[in-house]
Amino acid sequence: MSEDRSFIKDKKRIVVKIGSSSLIHPETGGIDYVRLEKLVRILSDLKNRGKEVVLVSSGAIGVGRKSLGLKEKPENLALKQACAAVGQGQLMMIYQKLFLEYNHKAAQVLLTFDVITSDERRKNAKNTLNELIGLGIIPVVNENDTVATEEIEFGDNDTLSAIVATLINADLLIVLTDQDGLFTDDPTKNPDAKKISVVKKIDESLVNMAKGSSTTFGTGGMSTKIAAARIATDTGTDMVICNSNDLTNISRVVNGKDVGTLFISHEQDDFDAKDFIINKKYMD
Fold first, then answer.
1. What integer is the mean pLDDT of 110-133?
2. Which N-terminal residues, if any, form the signal peptide (predicted)?
């Protein structure tokens, strides 16, 4: 199923989420600078078109792991936090340098899970993000992995990106992944799996489709993206899942092309994003 997406051209406030698997060479764990530079160039072009852009970026732990010379992905919490402490500054320095090359400024915003549970922190985060956007600065958001514990972490930036979209009343959330969108089955295992172009309602059958589908380097599989879509669409933000292997997909989505899977927003007055996130976290 497909339909006219020309209405997306009018979207002004856009959140783009990119995961670790889209930023890091899987063979070495090193940063893919070519892809990172292309991402920044495309986002800068959106800014030049008059769009308001927020980037939600993973990668701090992966960058820190490489910098510290660790061959294996860290498993214990303290080592993850150490990697994040080293990697976050390095990653942000790269982003700021690249954005400056295209005459745009970027600012680091680190959030923790309690931004959802605390009304005051949520308000402060919203005000900070809106102020940065108003100043023409591109916020680069990540979870604050250096202080988050397993009990209070988001666990993946898919959820975080939906929260950010909700906080700033974004018009569109673009989630980049290593798949072309949502499929009827895992396309890496079932060659007959079909891509779904448009989702108007997220039901149990859709959730079951996403189970078992994963990415190669990050923490979030397709099921976390469906949860993010639920948060985004039920709070009034359209969302698109598309493949990061071709980053021009971002521009194509914004231009209203039939790329990836579009989740149509249907704002629900009785939907409480905070309760949904907290309840889902403790049910998983």
1. 90
2. none
